[in-house]
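Example (one chain per record):
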Amino acid sequence: MGTTFDENLSNGIALMESGEYAAAIEAFKGCTTADPGNAEGYFYLGEAYSESGKSDDAIAALRKGLELAPADLDGLTALGDIYFEAGKHKDALACYRKVTELSPKDCDGYVSMGLVYNAMERTDEALKAFERALEFDPNNVFALNAMGDLYYGLGENDKAIAAYHRGIEIDPTDATARFNLGELYYDMDDLEAAERETLEAIRLDPEFTMSYLTLGNICIDEDRTAEAIKHFENYLKKEHSPQAREMIAEVKAVVEGLKEELRG
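Predicted structure:
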């Protein structure tokens, strides 16, 4: 007797959680074989492909799932996210717009649309989308962080800082806002504030790998080479995403250069 849909699904989820994406893909393929009419198997398969850096396969799996369940908000959002990461902005917008049509008060759908508009440098439309999300939920930290990023990109630092701080007031445990604030202070050459906020981001979420890169750069700027190496090595220890391959290679090269510098 073959493995059931539920058995494959449970196995695949466990494999995903342990980072065994290739094996998870096979498990979720088993789901689609056991029950080809169940969209859930295709949605999980798409997620596993995405985590493996196989965006075309992820798109195909998610689209198949949406053929079976066209109103699934999570499936639409996941497909939009992959399109966005692939730079297919019009396709991403179509997915997120569909989310807001199906669920008009879905704040995250508007925020996601705003992120795409911002990437397309259509900042007025991005701001309107973020503001729309905040109309429905004034305490939406996702929207506030996104608005902070928009103002940051426009060079309106005071507004960016205000948006990040508002998000932190609402959710003091949000590592993303702390990291974003640290990045902004770093660009403003306020290294003390940048380090304070970035260290807090790591305290809140030690797996927030980009924080270690910021700390490493701060230490380089302050000629704290040994500390910079430590932060970059922490990044390498914790970052395993296939999408980060190029960054990992760059950081490895930086670490080797810094070690050579210490050796004199």
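Caption: The mean pLDDT is 95.
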